Amino acid sequence: MGVRSRFAVMSLTDAAAERIREIVEDADEPVAGLRIGVKKGGCAGMEYTMQKVAAPDAKDERIEEKGVSVFVDPSAVLFLLGTVMDFETTKLRSGFVFRNPNEVSACGCGESVMLKPAEMPGAAAAS
Fold it and tell me: For a FRET experiment, which of 12, 52, 75, 93 has its CA 20 to 30 Å from that of 19?
C-alpha cells in the first residue's frame, strides 16, 4: 500500500470516522475499512464510490486516521487530493459528504459532481 509520509490524500472528520467505525464493526464479515473512488456517471459526470474492503489492494493509498482505515482507489487519487470526508445527518437525509477542492460543479440532486484532477505543486514549474 502507498506510504503517506508527507500528506494524506484525504482527511476525515470525527463524524466520518465514527460512521466508518460503525460500518466496520457492524459488518457480517471481517472488514479492514472503506475504499473510496470515483466513477463516471450521474448528470454532472462523476460519482463517488464507496465499498467495504476485506483485503486492501496493494495499490491503494491507505489513510489511517482517528482509528479507522480508508483506502483510496489509485485511479481516484488526483480527483480526491485535499478532500475532507464528513458524515452529516439532516432532517431529510444522512450520509457521507465530500468537501472536495477539485469539484467544479455538482448536479441539483447532489448525487454526482464534475471533478478536475488536482494540480500537483511544482508541476507547472517542471514543464
Answer: 75
CA 56 centroid distance within chain: 15
CA distances from 45 to 28, 48, 92, 107 (A): 33, 11, 24, 9
Predicted TM-score (pTM) above 0.85:
no
Q: Of 125, 77, 127, which is closest to residue 100 (Cα–Cα)?
A: 77
The 10s digit of each residue's pLDDT in 96-125 is 999 988 777 565 555 655 566 677 555 444
What DSSP state is assigned to residue 2? B
**Cell numbers for 103:** 469539484
Strands 83-89, 10-12: pairing is parallel
Phi (first) and psi of residue 95, to 5 degrees: 170, 175
Please report, to the nearest 10 degrees, the dihedral formed by the alpha carbons of residues 30, 1, 81, 47 taken in order. -50
Share of the chain above pLDDT 90, in %: 49
- Asked whether the beta carbons of 20 and 86 are under 8 A apart, the reply is no
